[in-house]
Design brief:
Length: 207
């Protein structure tokens, strides 16, 4: 699979790769470690795949929830639904063009919460009753943990972008000199990179 911006990919329309025995077909997407990657790094295919998978989980939940007690229902959510919502969410979560899909994912958590509470309550009241936080807040917390690990140098080498500060770049004693220096991308593809999205979605205090 070739990845990049639309302009970059247009330069490889006739690109072909072959071995001694056969030609290797170029794919527009593939799954790696449970995450669906596409050539433009839009993550829409992964989220749509996740929605389909969670739809099956919700269908099973709707058929069995009346037979289980509250503790078992919570265990079902924590064991068979929440891990899918959390997995790699710092990469694909809250992307600018996936607002609709993010709302659909939140509806899964809200629906299950209301079923567990078993009363005429709003989604927010059901989440509060179970002491659950909305998915966007969970994703924000995961991004904060990533940045914290980056600042403590407890991350892989490919996250070295977090380890230099403003003051180390220009030497001046500025108000934000202690903040990590993130290079500003020049293309949309660069703006969609995980580390850029992760850092820039944090508020100033967290940074």
């Amino acid at each position: 699979m070739l990845s990049g911006s639309k302009t970059m990919l247009s330069s490889f329309n006739d690109f072909k790769f072959s071995t001694d025995k056969e030609q290797v077909n170029c794919a527009s997407s593939f799954k790696y470690l449970g995450v669906v990657l596409d050539e433009k790094w839009k993550w829409k295919m992964h989220v749509n795949s996740l929605l389909q998978k969670l739809g099956h989980r919700l269908s099973v939940f709707n058929r069995i929830y009346h037979m289980l007690d509250k503790k078992s229902l919570i265990a079902y959510f924590n064991g068979l639904v929440l891990p899918h919502l959390d997995y790699a969410d710092i990469i694909w979560g809250d992307q600018p063009r996936l607002t609709t899909q993010m709302k659909q994912l939140q509806s899964f958590e809200s629906h299950i919460a209301k079923k567990i509470v078993k009363g005429k309550v709003t989604s927010a009241e059901a989440l509060t009753s179970l002491q659950w936080v909305p998915l966007h807040a969970r994703r924000f917390g995961h991004r904060c943990c990533l940045v914290q690990d980056a600042m403590k140098e407890e991350i892989p080498e490919h996250f070295n972008v977090f380890r230099s500060t403003m003051s180390q770049q220009h030497g001046y004693n500025t108000r934000n000199g202690c903040m990590p220096k993130i290079s500003k991308p020049r293309t949309e593809w660069g703006r969609n990179k995980m580390y850029y999205n992760t850092f820039n979605r944090l508020d100033l205090t967290t940074k």
